[in-house]
Design brief:
Number of domains: 2
Strand order of the largest sheet: 1-2
Radius of gyration: 27 Å
Distance between the termini: 101 Å
Number of helices: 9
Oligomer: single chain
Order of helices and strands: HEHHEHEHHEHHH
Structural class: mainly alpha
Length: about 190
Amino acid sequence: MNRKRNNYSASWGDMVEARGLAISDSWQPSSQLLNQLISQGISRYALLNEWRGAFIQIMQNEDRREGQQQWDTLFQQFVAQQQPVVTPSPGTYPGRPGSEPSRTATMTNDWQPSQEMLKLIRDTVCPNGDYIKAQLTSFSSHFYGQHHPNWDQKFRQWINNGWNVYGHKNNYKEQSEQGFIEKHTDRSWADDL
C-alpha cells in the first residue's frame, strides 16, 4: 500500500505569515508611534494603560490578524477615535447645553470654571474665594495640555482635596493674615519642642 502525500507548495510558516498573527496580551505600540502620539499632547498613561488594553481586547474579539506595522496603524486610528483634539472656545464647556459637542477638552492657561461650578464649590466645599483663585492658577498649570471630559468636576475635586484633605480650611485664614516675612520666618511649630 503506497500512499502518496499531498505536496503543499507553502509551508506552515508561510501560511501564518501571509495571514498575520493575532494580537497578544503583551502587545505594545512601537516606540516611534508612541513618541509621535505623545508629541501630539496625548498622555503616555492613557496610551499604555487605558487605550492599549481596550485596543487589544477589541482586536482579539474581532480575531484580527495583522503584522506589527498594521497593528501600529490600527492603534493610531483607534486613538484618534478615542481622543479627538478639541479645544473649546472660552465660555463653552463640555456637556453644557449650547456648547459644542465634544468628549474631551484640552486644558489651557486661561481656562476658567463655569459660574455654576464656582457657586457649587463655594456653597459646598470651600467658602474662601481667595483660596479658589490661588488654586485656579495651580490647577491650570498642573494639567496644561492634558485632555479631560469635564474640567469643572476635576477642579471641584482639586479644591476639595486641597481644602479638606490637606487641612487648608483650618489654617488658610491664619496664614493669609500674616505678612510675607512673618509667614516665612514663623517658628511657632517649635514652641512645643
